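Propose amino acids for all 355 sites.
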């Protein structure tokens, strides 16, 4: 009789608990849509990766801006995964080798991002007549340092300019010299400048060249050789001249602000992020620096927010994309996709300086 009562109790318990357990495991409409959206984005990413790989291996002509579809597909994968983990926090997984926050990225798809990078290496390969440097990283540091000294900076802050500029090289091209651009027909070279920016930087360099010669005659002699070597070609595909002109065009004047910047942003990676914002949204970044309250300076222009999103800042997930404004403190925090590149730059800088 005791056994029979136990069996009846178990059956009752099953019928009572069973539906509750099933209901607990069922997805809400929002969760189901988040899963489906991520699955669609992932399938689309795999499809465009396979298409570009097939075209490259078959040596077929690539479409104009062949990297744009890849980039947008990668953004969609990260965005829909963030929406998925917002709806289902249990889907947040383990850390990944790219140091992307796990809420934004499933580590299981690391091989897809590796393939993404390999495809861009092919699509952005330098032209056959590109003029490489045997010391590309040291060139960036040396040029930035001498420009900062010509702008009147003390040695300590001139060194910071060299370190920051090496970070820009990694941010723009991952430390690859003379590359083209799979997403733009305008911006090219080690510092990804347009023709007008390159010319403007060259003009500004000529204005300080006598000062550079007095500060560092050896570097000035190297500059003369590279200028002669690049004569008659696109200066953006000579590593030395493109770095030099890129720094002079966008960053040399801001070097004067480095003493104040390092006080406000003691973290070297934050310093690199700020100078990268000079590349991305120069006007509001300069305004923020002049405001006297850099971190709390707020931008709300739809065009500025669009430029930020086009450079992987507030680009991923519905919550981030819904933002209509942001302070510079928030912008710097949202630049996590740049962290790994800047860490590589820091390591390379230490190697160059022998530390």
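Proposal:
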């Amino acid at each position: 009789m005791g056994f029979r009562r136990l069996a009846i109790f178990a059956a009752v318990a099953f019928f009572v608990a069973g539906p509750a357990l099933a209901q607990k495991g069922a997805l809400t409409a929002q969760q189901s849509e988040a899963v489906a959206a991520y699955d669609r984005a992932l399938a689309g990413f795999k499809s465009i990766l396979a298409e570009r790989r097939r075209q490259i291996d078959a040596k077929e002509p690539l479409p104009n801006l062949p990297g744009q579809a890849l980039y947008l597909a990668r953004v969609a994968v990260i965005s829909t995964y963030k929406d998925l983990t917002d709806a289902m926090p249990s889907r947040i997984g383990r850390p990944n080798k790219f140091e992307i926050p796990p809420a934004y990225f499933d580590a299981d798809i690391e091989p897809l991002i590796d393939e993404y990078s390999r495809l861009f290496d092919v699509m952005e390969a330098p032209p056959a007549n590109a003029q490489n440097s045997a010391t590309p990283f040291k060139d960036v540091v040396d040029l930035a340092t001498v420009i900062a000294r010509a702008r009147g900076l003390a040695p300590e802050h001139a060194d910071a300019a060299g370190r920051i500029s090496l970070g820009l090289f990694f941010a723009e091209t991952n430390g690859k010299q003379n590359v083209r651009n799979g997403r733009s027909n305008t911006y090219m070279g080690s510092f990804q400048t347009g023709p007008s920016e390159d010319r403007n930087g060259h003009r500004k360099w000529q204005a300080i060249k006598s000062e550079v010669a007095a500060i560092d005659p050896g570097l000035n002699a190297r500059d003369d050789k590279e200028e002669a070597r690049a004569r008659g070609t696109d200066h953006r595909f000579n590593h030395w001249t493109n770095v030099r002109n890129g720094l002079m065009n966008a960053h040399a004047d801001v070097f004067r602000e480095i003493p104040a910047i390092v006080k406000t942003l003691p973290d070297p990676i934050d310093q690199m992020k700020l100078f990268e914002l000079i590349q991305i949204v120069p006007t509001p970044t300069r305004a923020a620096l002049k405001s006297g309250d850099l971190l709390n300076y707020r931008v709300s222009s739809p065009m500025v927010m669009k430029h930020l999103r086009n450079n992987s800042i507030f680009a991923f997930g519905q919550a981030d994309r819904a933002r209509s404004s942001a302070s510079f403190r928030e912008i710097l925090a949202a630049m996590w996709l740049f962290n790994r590149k800047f860490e590589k730059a820091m390591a390379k800088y230490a190697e160059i300086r022998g530390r």
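Residues 29-57 form the longest helix (29 residues). Residues 30-123 form one domain.
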